[in-house]
Amino acid sequence: MISRQQAREGAVPCDGLTRQGAAGHSIRRVRASVIVLGLVSAVLMTERGSAQNSELYRLTVRPREMATGTRTQAPGFQHLKDSLTDVIYVPQQCVGTRRCPLLTLLNMDNEWFYNAADRYGIILQQHSREGNSGELLDAALKQILRDYAIDPNKLAILGRCAGVRSALNRATKNLDVFSRILLIAGPAPVFIDSLSPPNKTTEFFVEQGIRENNMAVEHDSTLRQAGYPVKFVFALNTHDHQLEAYDFIGRWLHESWATPKAADRPAPAVVAEVPLTTDALARMTQFWTKFHDLVNRGSLRDNLFTNSRRDHLREMAVPAGKRRLSVQMVDMTAMAARYPDIASYLQESGLTPEEHDTYRVALVSAEIARTQSSIAQTIEPTSVQAKNIAFLEAHPDELQELEETGFWITP
After folding, report:
1. Which of 13, 220, 233, 365 is the most exposed, having the fewest neighbouring CB atoms within 10 Å of its CB?
2. What pTM value is reported for the model?
3. Domains of the chain: total
4. What is the mean pLDDT of each run of 10 residues along the chain (411 residues)?
5. What are the φ/ψ torsions at residue 42 (nearest 5 degrees)?
6. Please, are residues 89 and 117 in contact by the beta-carbon 8 Å criterion?
7. Containing domain of residue 326, as a range?
8. Is residue 115 domain-shared with residue 245, that is, in the same domain?
9. Last residue of a domain, one of 197, 229, 264
10. How many Cα atoms within 13 Å fall on the side-chain side of residue 166?
11. Residues 255 and 147 in one domain
12. Helix 384-394 and helix 396-403: axis angle, to 10°?
């Protein structure tokens, strides 16, 4: 058994960008992150040839034949036997004979994901070094299947930032191994001719922070054109790690494996599009200034920001051109019903909880569209969304005031 601190050793930071925990709530622009991501993307473009080499990334592990482990012995962080590169995290509910899913995190510290693993019953593999041929990953997966009770139909692989390329190279050549492929905040381009043909069980999850300018939207478009099922999510986040985002991923994995048909899964909430006004923007800024102060005020911080607010997050379907994209945000109606301070702040700001949620969706929708050219090109010029984009462009100072409340980086 090893400590969480030891588990972090060997994890590779994402392109040298600042890593910040879920409690990190500072307001900052991410121009430097955008520049770094662009440079990484340009470098990775040169690796197209190797990405097309199927044999280079083909694994020999066969989960349905090799999942011979019948019992998981102990909970917590532990080094994988005979491996210098892998740390395993086992939730308490996976100890014993229960077969749990396995999520492989490439070059990413599993410290960020263990809360979600505990909640949804997922065993984590932190794989920090791969080797060009993938032999280390192949060997590690075989050993995990021998030593732990793993459900062979529920293997997932996650790449974040520069790790997206590694995840794609491994996963898309091994769709018989991984049934879920997660691409988080990644600049690496997707090439249709480097992908294996779609099958009936493999799904992609693609996430991009609303304050990121990477290529996740292009990932989504390319994968859909190639015939793959994709869950695309915009996160209210910069490029920092965020526990809310990882909990969302854990929940999606759990639901997608429990309910294989996407149409049968819970649908995100939908609200009607409304036009933005200077009065609405001012009221939202007034409320969010108070809300930001409340969740950071002494003893209330742990209760509201860390626990209760996360318990009241819901998935919203946000208009984005001709599509609706998923964004996770706090259900302010539920929060106001539970906390008198929040209900009072809404009232003082001239908002009902329902109006708050409606305006927030309108603001997020317009911001996504105006910062993502591929989405902006699909918007009807006379639509409410087009008018809201023009409104934001015409009010940069008021928009900056809203940004300073944490509005764009607080789900």
Report:
1. 13
2. 0.85
3. 2
4. 49 40 31 34 40 69 97 95 88 98 89 91 87 78 97 96 83 91 76 69 90 71 83 89 90 96 91 93 96 69 66 90 89 91 94 96 92 81 93 96 92 88
5. -65, -40
6. yes
7. 269-403
8. yes
9. 264
10. 23
11. yes
12. 90
